[in-house]
Design a protein that fits this description.
The complex is a heterodimer.
Chain A lengths: L1 H40 L3 E2 L5 E2 L5 H8 L1 H34 L2 H16 L2 H12 L4 H8 L11 H26 L3 H8 L4 H12 L1 H17 L2 H5 L8 H11 L5 H30 L1
Antiparallel strand pairs in A: 1-2
Helix pairs in contact in A: 1-13, 2-3, 2-13, 3-7, 3-10, 4-7, 5-7, 7-10, 8-9, 10-13, 12-13
Chain B lengths: L9 H11 L4 H26 L17 H7 L2 H34 L5 H13 L2 H23 L7 H25 L4 H8 L4 H30 L2 H6 L7 H11 L3 H27 L1
Helix pairs in contact in B: 3-12, 4-7, 4-9, 4-11, 5-7, 7-9, 8-9, 9-12
Chain lengths: 289, 288
């Protein structure tokens, strides 16, 4: 009996190893190891031809913190990401409530309508705004018609913000809907019966109870926005540099390219992200208590 | 016998609804707001489709119907080549990441082992790491590997469709694991025990019981992986080499130069493909 059990255990271990090995190998080799490499690169030097020189230095980080070009890109990206997240939340929350409060047979179709843009190519969706905001585009055509005259709508930070909100809104609505759908709206009536007004009932009951959805949605919007470079290039006209634009240039197009500096920027971006998510989690769970 | 007269006109019906409390101003405001948001979501997409048929050479206003841009598109070898590359990469990436991801999901859902927490972290990390970080990391990694290969064998390798595919698989695995794990969680394990009691060996149990029951989850994961690969732009930009362009990269390169209706046309086709995939995944879920 003991021998049989041992045999079974051994077979289980072999089976587990077979299940785990391909995935772990792939993720370690093509995900974890590359991250380690850029971490190491961020402490290396660069030569005039854009080759990585294996001499340890802190210069990349010093450059980022002392040159306004780099440090400003961090502030700009952080500020834009916060703004995008907040606006997506302000638009997404009422929308999620609307879907959750609709008649049962309407909810799935309404949710699908949010999902379809999410499944379509991000680049295509951003490009669509280029058409709308173009100098001879549809909005300017309308403005001319009513006598306002053409405005320069494209290639500014406002256009970038519109594109970001448009692109990330579905990521906010889906987790919000999941949380609000689970919320029992009779609790709001109970609060009203106990003398709470609508604002109090919302702040004290609904908001805390749907907080997991708010947190998930905010994180899902914040992460890609912090590293974006396509929107600011296609809609912002690449006039000002966001984090993603600088990293992309340092890795692909600068003359000379500077991978160590680009790596340092990427590593710092990850740190900013971690700090933000941790602060956010702490702030939102405290509110719950 | 006297009942309230049936409201005949729309405005009378509205007034009745308001006085009975079925309609509230905040409810109306919420509905109007939501309709506006849906318009905001769809107007750009609909305009894009409309303007793929316009005669306007910039493709930004309506000046008459034409199919020229589609004809030009199909006669553009660069675009067609990029479209083909995209489909090849997406297909290979989907097959590999679905197999690997399903195996990982089985391991995570069915076994308790040391280091499980760490493995869990490794699986979910690619979802939260910004794609540009993953892209530059893979770029640096591929450069080092190519240097090593040159040192050892003297052969010069370049970034190609293979490097892009490897990257796509790396970020798709996590999403496949998430989807397949959900269907494994909903799975009634007593079915497997029953099969075992009836004398089936574990190979038979997997293929005859487990696999068919979690198949919708696997297909769902595969469809997600396929869409992620089709849609991916950032990793494709960093990891594709010269002459091996993918569709989103090709679109990006052209859009940066100038807006042409040909881009509207290819975008419309990409939209159609995405929607077809959503429709398929919905149908599959309904069958479940």
């Amino acid at each position: 009996m003991a021998m049989l059990q041992q045999q079974q255990q051994r077979r289980d271990r072999i089976r587990l190893a077979l299940l785990l090995t391909p995935g772990l190998l792939w993720l370690i080799l093509f995900f974890a190891l590359p991250l380690v490499i850029i971490f190491v690169y961020s402490f290396m030097s660069n030569d005039a031809l854009g080759r990585v020189v294996y001499e340890p230095t802190l210069n990349n980080y010093i450059t980022i913190f002392t040159q306004s070009l780099y440090i400003n890109a961090y502030w700009r990206s952080i500020w834009t990401s916060v703004l995008t997240t907040v606006i997506c939340l302000l638009i997404g929350y009422p929308l999620a409530v609307f879907i959750a409060r609709s008649p049962q047979q309407w909810r799935m179709p309404l949710l699908m309508l949010i999902l379809i843009p999410f499944w379509t190519n991000f680049l295509v969706r951003i490009y669509a705004w280029q058409i709308i905001l173009a100098n001879n585009g549809i909005i300017n055509g309308f403005l001319e018609l009513i006598g306002v005259g053409r405005l320069s709508l494209l290639n500014n930070e406002g256009a970038t913000l519109i594109g970001l909100i448009y692109g990330e809104l579905p990521f906010m609505v889906l987790p919000l809907y999941a949380a609000i759908d689970r919320f029992d709206f009779t609790l709001m009536e109970a609060a009203a019966d106990l003398g709470a007004n609508k604002v109090q009932a919302f702040l004290r009951i609904m908001l805390p109870m749907t907080m997991p959805g708010i947190v998930a949605g905010s994180v899902l919007v914040f992460i890609p926005t912090l590293g974006q470079f396509v929107v600011s290039e296609l809609l912002g006209g690449a006039k000002v540099d966001y984090l993603g634009n600088l990293i992309q240039r340092l890795f692909l197009r600068a003359n000379p390219i500077n991978w160590p500096l680009g790596s340092a920027m990427a590593v710092l971006m990850m740190i900013v992200l971690l700090v933000f998510i941790m602060l956010y989690f702490r702030a939102t769970t405290e509110e719950e208590r | 016998m006297i009942k309230t007269a049936p409201a005949t006109t729309a405005s009378a019906r509205m007034r009745a609804a308001f006085s009975e409390g079925r309609l509230t101003w905040s409810g109306v405001a919420l509905t109007v707001f939501s309709i506006l948001v849906y318009l905001f979501l769809y107007a750009p997409i609909i305009l894009l489709v409309i303007f793929s048929f316009t005669r306007d050479e910039f493709g930004v206003r309506w000046t008459g119907f034409t199919l020229d841009w589609y004809i030009r598109l199909f006669n553009n070898p660069r675009m067609m080549g990029a479209a083909w590359n995209t489909l090849v990469v997406a297909t290979i990436s989907t097959i590999v990441s679905t197999i690997i991801g399903t195996l990982l999901a089985m391991a995570m859902e069915r076994y308790r082992f040391r280091g499980r927490g760490a493995v869990e972290g490794l699986i979910y990390l690619p979802i939260v790491v910004p794609e540009i970080v993953m892209a530059v990391a893979l770029l640096a990694f591929s450069a080092i590997v190519f240097d090593l290969i040159k040192l050892v064998t003297g052969e010069t390798l370049r970034r190609s469709l293979a490097t892009v595919t490897i990257g796509h698989i790396a970020f798709s695995i996590s999403f496949v694991v998430v989807v397949v794990r959900t269907s494994l969680k909903n799975f009634d394990r007593r079915l497997e025990e029953a099969a075992a009691d009836l004398g089936a060996d574990s190979w038979n149990i997997f293929w005859r019981i487990t696999f068919p029951l979690i198949l919708p989850g696997i297909v769902g994961g595969a469809l997600l992986a396929f869409t992620l690969s089709l849609d991916d732009f950032i990793i494709s930009l960093f990891l594709s080499g010269p002459g091996t362009s993918l569709l989103p990269v090709e679109v990006y390169n052209r859009v940066r130069r100038a807006v042409t209706p040909e881009i509207n046309a290819i975008s419309t086709l990409m939209l159609l493909l995405s929607m077809a995939l959503v429709a398929i995944s919905q149908l599959l879920q309904r069958r479940r």
